[in-house]
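Async update (no meeting this week)

Hi team, since we skipped the sync, here's where things stand on the single-chain job. The sequence we agreed to prioritize is pasted below, unchanged from the tracker. I ran it this morning and attached the output directly underneath so nobody has to dig for it. Comments welcome in thread, and please keep replies under the output.
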Amino acid sequence: MERTIKNINLLYYIVFMMTVVAAVIIFFLTFSNTRTTYIEERSQTGIILSSVYILYLLISIPYALWSFHRKTKKWQLIQDDYLKFKAYEKGSLIRLYIIGISLIAGVILVYVMRSRSMIFCAAIAAIALYFSKPTVNKMIKELKLEEVE
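Output:
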C-alpha cells in the first residue's frame, strides 16, 4: 500500500514541478528581450483556443473525478490486495494525467494569450489537482480497507 501511494505521489509532484518549471520559463520569457508572438484574446484563434481549453476543462475534470469514484466502487470488491492496489494506482495515475494536462496547458495559455480568464481556468485545474492528492488515509477510505482489516 505504501509503495502504491509513493508511485502516485511521484506523478503528483512531477505534474506540479512541470507546472512550476513552465511558469518560471514563462516568467523569464516575459521579462527578457525575447521576441515572441502572442495570440490576441479577442481574435478568432484566441477565441477558439480558449473555448477548446475551457471545454476540455469543463468535461475532463468532472469526468476524471466521477470516473475514478465509480471505479473505486468496483475495486472495493476485488479480494486480492495486490490487484486492488494496482488497479487503484492505475486509476489514480490516469486521473492525475487528465487533470495535470489541463493545469499545464492553462499555465501555457496564460502566457500565449495574456488572458485573465486563462489564469482562473488554470487555478481551477490546480484546485482539482490538489483534491486529487493521494494519501494513505484517502486510499483506505476509498477502498474501504478498514472494514477488511
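Quick observations from my side:
The longest helix spans residues 81-113.
Residues 2-148 form one domain.
Reply here if anything looks off.
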